[in-house]
Amino acid sequence: MGGPTAGAAEAVGVPVAGAAYERRLHPLTPLLRAWVPIAAVIGALAQQGDRAEEWITELPVSFRFLLLVALLLVFGTYGLLSWWFTHYAVTDTELRIRSGLLFRRTAHIRLDRIQAVDVTRPMLARLAGVAKLRIDVIGADDKDELAYLGEKDAAALRAELLARAAGFAPAEAVALGEAPERALLRVGPRELVVSLLLSLGVLAAVTGGLLVPVAVWWFSANPWAAAAALLPLLGWAWSSSAGRFLTEYDWTVAESPDGLRLDHGLLDRAHETVPPGRVQTVRIVEPLLWRWRGWVRVELAVAGSKNDVLVPVAARAAAYEVIARVLPGVDLTALGFSPATGAGARWVVPVWWRGYGVAVSADVFAARRGLLCRRTEIVPHAKVQSVRLTRGPWKRLHGVADVHVDTGANGTVTARLRPAPEASALLHAQADRSRTSRATARPDRWMT
């Protein structure tokens, strides 16, 4: 890369290693950043309630005006300085981000360690025509981000970073542009609303939100205690119903050479990427009221990434077609689950033992659990980090054991309540399968 790309963010003209030039963020960034402390002040005043109103009304009108101007100047200056001291540059080997007003911070992000680059557009950013770029790096828990860039600059930089991470030369990466994509699946608003209404979690949240505060008020005769019980239930009901609707609205899945692309959101639009070869576990969720319609939800565990939903709701056949893109060569319909059996399982987990099962194929290890909401977790043999067998005193007494399969995303898939001899054989066989699969696994590269 010999200099700033055409139409890219403003170049500062400071050359850095690799003959790249540092660039600044979009000029509207100070205005958008100033809203953060303004919202914090408004929230603090709202918490004080009557005391804040009394304090403000006691001040002279002219002093109130001067105070408002002073706050706007302070917050505006903060936004301007934070924008002025933030630069980024793409060198031959890394993306470098320098930021910080009082405490300077420089992030060196190796291009070959980039796992995914997401573009998000919060509601205010959409009105201003800018976007936020979030970079997912292997081995890092937190994402670095560039907020904000022009929408076209964000898309161009994202395409360049993904191409460079895939091994393309700097000149090739800039010339490639956005990789083409092919639509695989789209979830309509009606289907999403019906799925939420049929979710047991939503029904439980609404029922609890109506009954628990009334019960607390009835027994305590204290309206404040009822309000305290109501607030967390309202948060739960919001996150599991309206919050999910806003986040999962107009969910689309598309296939491209750099991975599966996920676009979704009503107020805040997100453009995320699931890189092929980095998926550690696939989870298929089937709530009780969804099964008669043949619907499933697909969740993921990707090492170092917080993107955990692949398909919010879809017919089973359509969802399996999408899963086939992240688990190529795996036939989910051919998995035959062996249920937990025997008197030992019945004594260890009464009633619910019927929900446990395990299946193993040449490519994956799968475990199933749950009766009301059935969850099936699938992990490729090549992604298994370790295998463990556990038996507490109660399980030893009844001759059963659990086999745990640990993955690279700090997750574990567990086959519960297996007869002890079967669990021991499963442990050793899985260790062998994982070792041989890792030796023959393809490298985690995309666009190739």
Total of helices: 15
The amount of beta strand, in percent, is 25-35%
Distance between the termini: 21 Å
Radius of gyration: 26 Å
SSE topology sketch:
Elements: E1 11-16, E2 20-24, H1 29-48, H2 50-57, H3 61-84, E3 87-90, E4 94-99, E5 105-110, E6 114-121, H4 123-128, E7 130-137, E8 144-150, H5 151-165, H6 170-176, E9 182-187, H7 189-197, H8 200-220, H9 223-240, H10 242-248, E10 251-256, E11 259-264, E12 269-274, E13 279-287, H11 288-291, E14 295-302, E15 309-315, H12 316-326, E16 338-339, H13 343-348, E17 357-360, E18 364-369, E19 373-380, E20 384-390, H14 393-398, E21 400-407, E22 412-419, H15 420-440
Antiparallel strand pairs: 1-2, 2-3, 3-4, 4-5, 6-7, 6-12, 7-8, 9-10, 10-11, 11-12, 13-14, 13-19, 14-15, 16-17, 17-18, 18-19, 20-21, 21-22
Structure description:
With about 450 residues, the chain is of the alpha+beta class. The chain contains 15 helices and 22 strands. The strands form four sheets. A seven-stranded antiparallel β-sheet has the order 8-7-6-12-11-10-9, sandwiched between helices. The protein has a seven-stranded antiparallel β-sheet with strand order 15-14-13-19-18-17-16. The chain has a five-stranded antiparallel β-sheet with strand order 1-2-3-4-5. The longest helix is centred in the first third of the chain and has 24 residues, at about 60-85.
